[in-house]
Amino acid sequence: MVRRKLIAGNWKMNCLSADGVALAKSVAAQVKAGKFDCEFLICPPFTLLGLVKKCLRGSKVGLGAQDVHFAEKGAHTGDISPLMIKDLGCSYTIIGHSERRVDHAESNQLINQKAVAAHAAGLNTVICIGETEKERDAGKTIKVCQTEINGSVPADSTAKNTVIAYEPIWAIGTGKTPTAADVQEVHAAIRQALAKKLGKATASKMRILYGGSVKPGNAAELLSLPDVDGALIGGASLKADDFIAIAKNASK
Ligand code: PEP
Which of 84, 111, 115, 233 has the fewest Cβ atoms within 10 angstroms? Predict the structure, then answer.
């Protein structure tokens, strides 16, 4: 089964207009100049979506948001609806990132609702899952991932509208990563959980990204694993050269 790798940058709460424009333009130019056999996505903060969209015009780099509300519109001060994101030119939104699960107490049920709303609006979702360090030390990694898959991934998920990102929370922004063998074991278990929930055919086609301190130096090993179908990249996506250097390993 050939799954085209997705290289996605999560800019988080970083960049003002000038930095965001420069970063997006540099990524777009380097993607255009290079030979890549992967899909690219960048997810700036909401404030920069409109500006970044202009920088990506004519390029093969997709645009995504970092979150979404589940309602179509209405009295939800400070929130952004799926149609608003779509209207800005996004094709994807990240949901269920651990920073939202923790900072905003987001539950699997809420993330599931967001995914359903995003899919209904024609957006694709990157649904994030992953264990804490305490859960990992207690040997609960696979159980946590299964529970999050069961709760967060809606029944309407397809290999086209949904990408899973496995992000061990203890690896995010820390410079620590699981061993390659551990990553492969967890990704294979996630694919099994997806098969149980969505059927074998869908699970075999659905992309599962690894996220957590992906850098140019470890990308080759991580992206060569059979069940790793790309990367969700935080810190290193803020430097165009690093982001592109990681992507080069997805095109081998
Ligand atoms: C993330 O939070 O999505 C992430 C993977 O961050 P980093 O690459 O900085 O660990």
Answer: 84
Q: What is the pLDDT of residues 45-93, one digit of tens each?
A: 999 999 999 999 999 999 999 999 999 999 999 999 999 999 999 999 9
Segment holding 149, helix H or strand E: helix 141-152
pLDDT in the model for residue 143 = 98
pTM given for the model? 0.97
Our measurement of the distance from residue 226's CA atom to the centroid of its chain's CA atoms, rounded to an integer in Å, reads 18
Q: In testing the pocket of ligand 1, which one of 127, 166, 172 has its CB within 8 Å of the most ligand atoms?
A: 172
> How far is C-alpha 88 from the chain's CA centre?
19
Q: Which of 6, 7, 10, 239 to mutate to test the pocket of ligand 1 (most atoms within 8 A of CB)?
A: 10
Read off the pLDDT band of 6 (50, 70, 90): very high
